[in-house]
Amino acid sequence: MKTRNIHSDLALAILGLLSLRPASGYDLRKVFLTTAMKAFSASPGAIYPALRRLERDGLIEGAVERKHTLRPRMIFKLSGKGKAALVASLTKPVTREDVIRRLDGLLLRFSFMSGLLGEAETLVFLAVLAAETQGYLKVLEEEYRRSAPGMPFSGRAALEQGVETYRVTARWAGKTLKELKKDLSSKGASK
Amino acid sequence: MKTRNIHSDLALAILGLLSLRPASGYDLRKVFLTTAMKAFSASPGAIYPALRRLERDGLIEGAVERKHTLRPRMIFKLSGKGKAALVASLTKPVTREDVIRRLDGLLLRFSFMSGLLGEAETLVFLAVLAAETQGYLKVLEEEYRRSAPGMPFSGRAALEQGVETYRVTARWAGKTLKELKKDLSSKGASK
DNA sequence: TGCAGCATGTAACCTGTTACATGATTAG
DNA sequence: CTAATCATGTAACAGGTTACATGCTGCA
Predict the structure, then answer these.
(1) Percent helix, strand and coil across chain B, each rounded to 5?
(2) Cβ neighbours of residue A21 under 8 Å, at least 6 residues apart?
(3) The predicted structure's pLDDT at residue A66
(4) CB-CB: which of B110, B158, B172 is closest to A154?
């Protein structure tokens, strides 16, 4: 069975949220408006077309609720195919490119892993993420060393922000990886 | 004179780079491939159409170099109109929305300010950026306090990454603001 | 001779933005 | 009664991605 791949972060976010509980387009909008997922588009012009595409591809299924009343809602839930596509998307290999240009997407994928992937797979993801982030940090630090002296104030400061951002992310990934490893080994011991 | 506004980060990055020195499409690609601006698309399918649009709108001007040889290059430089549009784009007010959804764009704008804006304007930009980042950090921290206990491991960890990222950015903005203020006052004193 | 790098481009496809539009329900 | 909120959508437009395509130049 060929699982269609998910193209955009918005589609991934929708599938992830629907993996937690069924929801209407409006429910999803509220999540995007009121939680830390504000980083995503909450505009109807993005959400409703995305839902239609996901339904067209068989990744989600909509059911009309309160059919008889005058204000029906479309409640969507993840299909088997949708769950497969979501899991496939979460387990895609992590590349340096992803770390540089799509870090948000990587964090989004990670945020949904607990309910959908085993701890071993989550661990692999985190390990690669930590390594690649650390690696890119080194590259950026080296560039800073070379270039900073000749750069104008604002350019240099902006580069500093980039370095510091990757520094905390690398630290965070390392810390989180350790936590997860501890979880795993304590479970292994109690077995 | 109505200065057309710049729509994408890529267009802004191109104009910013051309404000430093004229360059060909290929030169720009190399910058995107080899410097910290890797975060931008370096694909020809993005850069060349963007250059054509900027030229169409009169923001840049292309001149064919080495016309007589068999391998001509198009060297683009910023026009007066382009510089005006760039300055206008750099001085647009900073909103909370920008901090949440387009932080990269804000940093990009900041990175080009030194040569194009006065220190006073740069200072205003940084002050608002610092305030809004700090403000959103508070919101995220509050959300973490409320939600973290009930969240699954990976969701909570992802939220932590967000909090820590905004924390360093807020700190960075505050620190950079202070540096700039010191610069300004020492110049004022020596006058 | 052949390969890496220079230099530019096109086309199909997908997605997001902005702005507009509609109508129902509920709280004050 | 009326404003806010619920709930869903459409259309024009712009932009990026991927993949493909072309031909030159310098070097080994």
Answers:
(1) 75, 5, 20
(2) none
(3) 63
(4) B110
**pLDDT tens digits along A56-107:** 999 999 998 765 555 678 999 999 999 999 999 999 999 999 999 999 999 9
Between CA B82 and CA B88 the distance in angstroms is: 10
B47/B51 Cα distance (integer angstroms) = 6
Q: Hey, is B132 helix, strand or coil?
A: helix
With H, G, I as helix, E, B as strand and everything else as coil, classify residue A65: strand
Residue A180: closest C-alpha in chain B: B153
How far separated are the first and last CA of chain B, in Å rounded?
36
Nearest CA distance, A6 vs chain B (angstrom): 20
What pTM was estimated for this model as a whole?
Answer: 0.93
Task: Work out the mean pLDDT of chain B and round it to a whole number.
Answer: 92
Instruction: Please give the Cα distance from A143 to A141 (Å, whole number).
Output: 5
Give residue-wise pLDDT tens across range B77-135. Answer: 999 999 999 999 999 999 999 999 999 999 999 999 999 999 999 999 999 999 999 99
Strands B23-24 and B60-65: unpaired
**DSSP-H helix ranges across chain A:** 9-20, 25-34, 44-56, 80-90, 96-101, 103-111, 113-116, 119-147, 153-190
Chain A residues whose CB is inside 8 A of the B35 CB are 143, 147
Question: B19-54 pLDDT, tens per residue?
Answer: 999 999 999 999 999 999 998 888 999 999 999 999
Separation in Å: D13 C1' and A59 CA: 28
CA distance linking residue A175 with residue A181, whole number of Å? 10
In a 3-state reduction of DSSP, which class is residue B55? helix
Nucleic strand C near CB of residue A53 (< 7 Å) = yes
